[in-house]
Design goal:
Helices cover about 55% and strands about 15% of the residues. With about 725 residues, it is of the alpha+beta class. It has a 6-stranded mixed beta sheet with strand order 6-9-10-3-11-12. Strands 2-1-4-5 form a 4-stranded antiparallel beta sheet, covered by helices on one side. Strand 11 and strand 12 form a beta hairpin. Helix 3 packs antiparallel against helix 5 and helix 5 runs antiparallel to helix 7.
């Protein structure tokens, strides 16, 4: 019943066309009901009684009915196809509009393959159910509903026997329907997971080729295909069982009716014509049961996809504009947050708590802090991806809730950590910042972003088509396209979300210089974990656990040795990285921030620092894999990595995100056992690796070092156990 209501809700906007389909069904059912009744008249009255006019009238009526049935059947097929096409198109458009309004955290929680599967395969299943399954179910229901009462008119005792046909035929579908729906849901989930894996294989093809991961990826896809195949077979068997159960049940019911009717004819209690008419009506009922058997499988197959679509459509969208929202003609760029708190839907802890901060118009401020401190959430609130749970945000004194979202975004320029480039030319991608901009304005924005000369060297200049994701450009050029796109709208407020984290040191320095020149006179809010990039900021806000815990200039903040900023600065200091990122070193004193090395004497630290070898890692590459033997400890000189772990079911969960100055792999130096988690580069990284064999050599040759290391390791192990 619930599935039927959900299907009818999707048909509600097309009720006029659906009503015409229903009328055509009535005409068709009327004809096929007329045939057995006409046969009864022909046999018992017209032919047996020699009534030629009655024969002619009956056949003429059947001829008219046939023409009406043929026209209605053709029209119904055309209308059903039209309705199905419109339902699919409108549903896809509705889903696309919904996806456009979803906040960023939904996309972070759901895989792109799962969303793509919902848009394509799930909606296709719904279309099949509505265009094929639902009409067949309606046909079968009408056949049974019209013909079954007429059986009682012809001969009620035999009709009572015939009533066994329907429950016997429908027992199987009633019992199997929930299992078919559950199997369909699991199959669609597996399809979405496989689609995500395939997208990863395509996106990471260069990494797979370079590191010889073809066999590993082949095994991964083979495993997922095997799992999907098992689920498909399970669903297919259950669906076929639905059809077989209706056929077997109705055949058994027919056999009982034929036997009973034959006995009644032999006894003279039932005429031959009435028996023939009764059988004709019974065959109509049987046909209705068969149509239900044909229509239920695609309808039941759509139950899982409908549930997945409903789950996606139930995701809360970005807040709507208030009816009295204003569109500001211009902005000065003064931003103020007053007691702002925010908790993600379904979240247990607030991501932001009681934020109070003021950003003066035309100033350059930086939002810094450790991973998970709430920096990106704050940026999302400023862009109105979501509204605060409590508190108030104003721009030039106007509450953001009273400013239309498109009116606000029209005055914002945003450069993300990984600025997406769309299919099209370089000019098309820059013009997205302001679609109405002229070619001259596009080129002026490119010159301002210091991109014009690089574009001139492309094969077709501004008309050069970009590969998928802008693969034909370097990382620095892609960020400059994003910057030009942002500057094309001449924004009053420029928001920067880790814009240099994926750039090498030289490109980063050039990009920062360009930003400094273009940001003059604008309000700039820069969210970053790299403190070297915010030294020139007018004001720095330091966040931790969703709160601003420090504020001030770099010089003032670094003087507080117990503050979060000073700890972050110390963690990121002590590294020397060449402009191309191929050479890197760590200062011996910096190693003291690693607890394992904190107690080592100066000579041992100096020797240890020389053992660290630089490694340049591409974004997306797996640095260490869960289960492999650990033989190396890593310091992150530049970049961001994520630590993930797979459970027994193969589901991967992100445990932590590490950035500049962080480290991983201590156990590899102490135990040489299998890795308990995987580490993957989110951005291009420069790492400093220490091989376990070099560490062992140091322990063997430096007097007293082994004892120090073993004592620290024991202390850390005890802390870890107590924390558990």
């Amino acid at each position: 019943m619930r599935l039927g209501r959900r299907a009818l809700q999707r048909l509600r906007p097309y009720w006029r066309q659906a009503a015409l389909v229903g009328a055509a069904l009535v005409v068709e059912i009327g004809y096929w009901t007329l045939v057995p009744l006409a046969l009864r008249v022909l046999i018992d009255d017209a032919v047996s009684g020699g009534d030629a006019p009655l024969v002619a009238r009956t056949l003429a009526l059947m001829g008219v009915g046939f023409v009406a049935m043929a026209v209605a059947s053709t029209g119904r097929s055309w209308l059903a196809a039209r309705i199905g096409s419109r339902v699919l198109t409108d549903s896809r458009l509705r889903l696309f509009e919904h996806l456009q309004r979803l906040p960023p955290h939904v996309y972070a929680r759901r895989s792109s393959g799962d969303i793509s599967a919902a848009f394509l395969t799930d909606l296709n299943a719904v279309e099949v159910a509505l265009t094929l399954g639902l009409p067949e179910i309606a046909w079968g229901t009408l056949q049974i509903g019209v013909n079954l009462p007429l059986l009682f008119v012809l001969h009620w005792p035999l009709a009572l026997v015939a009533c066994l046909v329907v429950p016997m035929a429908m027992a199987g579908p009633r019992l199997l329907a929930p299992r078919v729906a559950a199997a369909g849901y699991l199959r669609r989930q597996a399809e979405g997971h496989l689609l995500t894996t395939l997208q990863e294989q395509i996106g990471g093809r260069s990494v797979i080729r370079v590191f010889g991961l073809e066999r590993l990826m082949h095994e991964r896809v083979r495993t997922e295909l095997g799992h999907l195949g098992n689920l498909t077979a399970r669903e297919g068997f259950r669906i076929r069982l639905v059809g077989r159960s209706t056929t077997i049940g109705s055949a058994l019911g027919q056999l009982v009716v034929f036997a009973t009717g034959s006995v009644l004819v032999f006894r003279g209690e039932l005429s031959v014509g009435t028996f023939v008419g009764f059988i004709g009506l019974l065959l109509n009922v049987d046909e209705g049961v068969h149509w239900l058997g044909f229509g239920l499988p695609p309808f039941l197959q759509a139950a899982g996809p409908m549930q997945r679509l409903d789950e996606l459509l139930a995701e809360p969208v970005e807040p709507a504009d208030s009816p009295d929202a204003i569109v500001p003609a211009s902005l000065a760029g003064q931003i103020e947050l007053q007691q702002v708190s925010f908790t993600y839907p379904g979240g247990e802890r607030p991501s932001l708590r009681d934020l109070d901060l003021r950003i003066a118009a035309g100033s350059h401020v930086a939002i810094v802090g450790p991973s998970g401190s709430g920096k990106s959430t704050l940026l999302g609130i400023l862009m109105r991806a979501f509204d605060p749970t409590s508190g108030r945000i104003t721009v030039d004194g106007d509450d953001l809730r009273r400013v239309r979202r498109d009116g606000l975004l029209g005055h914002l320029g945003v450069v993300f950590q990984e600025s997406f480039l769309f299919a099209g030319t370089v000019r098309d991608n820059i013009r997205l910042g302001r679609p109405a901009a002229s070619d001259a304005e596009v080129e002026a924005a490119a010159r301002a972003a210091q991109l014009h000369e690089a574009i001139q060297h492309l094969p077709n200049g501004y008309e050069t088509p970009l590969g998928e994701g802008g693969g034909g450009l370097s990382g620095g050029q892609r960020q400059r396209v994003a910057l030009a796109r942002a500057m094309l709208r001449n924004p009053a407020i420029l928001l920067l979300d880790e814009p240099t984290s994926a750039l090498d040191p030289l490109t980063e320095a050039e990009f920062i210089a360009t930003l400094g020149r273009l940001s003059a006179g604008r309000t700039v809010v820069s969210v970053t974990h790299r403190l070297q990039t915010v030294l020139g900021a007018d004001h720095i806000f330091v966040m931790d656990h969703g709160q601003v815990v420090q504020r001030g200039s770099h010089a003032a903040l670094v003087r507080d040795p117990d503050g979060v900023y000073a700890r972050l600065w110390a963690s990121q200091s002590g590294f020397s990285v060449s402009a191309d990122g191929l050479h890197a070193e760590v200062a011996p004193t910096r190693l003291r921030l690693v607890p394992l090395f904190a107690g080592l004497p100066e000579p041992a630290l100096a020797r240890l620092a020389r053992q660290f070898a630089p490694e340049r890692v591409a974004g997306g590459r797996t640095i260490v894999a869960q289960g492999e033997l650990g033989d190396r400890f890593y310091l992150i000189a530049r970049g961001t990595v994520e630590v993930t772990q797979r459970d027994g079911a193969g589901t991967e969960q992100v445990l932590n995100v590490l950035t500049d100055g962080d480290y991983f792999g201590e156990l590899a130096l102490l135990q040489h056992g299998p890795r308990t988690a995987s580490v993957r580069a989110r951005t291009p990284c420069v790492l400093l690796g220490l091989a376990a064999q070099h560490f062992e050599r140091l322990l063997a040759e430096e007097t007293g070092v082994r004892e120090t290391i073993e004592r620290v390791a024991a202390e850390r192990s005890a802390v870890s156990v107590s924390a558990r």
